[in-house]
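thought: fold this chain, then report.
action: predict
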Amino acid sequence: MLKSCDLAYHVHAIHWFWWSNGAEFYVGALKIASLLNLDFAIIALVRYLHAKSFGGKQYHIACGQGDLAEYLLVPGDPDRVPRIASFWDSAKEVSSNREFRSFTGTYKGVAVSALSSGIGPACMSIAVNEASNIGVRTFIRVGSTGAIQRGITCGDVIISSAAVRLDCTSNSYIMPEYPAVANYEVLLALIEAAESLNIQNYHVGVTATTADFYAGQNRPIKSHSTLETTNLLPTLQKAGVLNVEMETATLYTLASLYGLRAGAVCAVYNTLVTNEIKRGAGEENAIKIANESTKILSEWDAKKRKSKKSCFFPSLLQSR
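observation:
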């Protein structure tokens, strides 16, 4: 019986095997999957045929194998992609199709990419599914959000440790009781990045991801004053939830299901406590934290490989 960490390793190895070597080796990879009793074998075949149908490019994001780096930053806004890339050593635009715009380059010597997801959980699902099909293994959302707790102001940054699944989309993949949690390595890297950059106005905690921006987040609408969500914000506030947005729970759920890593850092554009709105406030800090976290993760990943460890732990940094 394979341990979960071992299983994830074999899944990743086989996934990389068929994408690296093409159709002629795909049958061999599928046989290996069968020998390991991995249920994903059929899913793998569907993914392969999907890619072949569109000339090797994923249908929505218009990227193929090798277009995106292993570390992927995922803003919602397509215009945020070049702003993210402006901090890199080098960058080039890869594709632009609908809401999905992508750049690839290097940040402090680390290969990195950015791909916009557009607004909402369904679009995030497309980004995760298609980007993971072509080799992306670490996803970091770089978004904007509305704070719902006092003491969090516009321009602050929120790093999401987990998310309340009010997105609806993730229910298509797994039962609602399944948790939406950040990968602990990415979470730690984001916090480490904020501290190393001396960005102190960050908060770490639980986020709520909703399927709708207006009624779904208790914002005023034209009719139906009595709704199922009327008491949503007070309930979330009492539960200690820090903020509301529309993508993180979907990202975290799919990443966990697929054996990927994910984290999220969002700039506070709006506080629903005072109804203050400052569009763009804190965006640069969120971008800087996300970029720096890729360098940190790359260093930690190198430490793991050298020490032949599958998981990061603090004392690993003391090894040479």
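thought: worth noting. The first strand starts at residue 71 and ends at 74.
final: tokens above.
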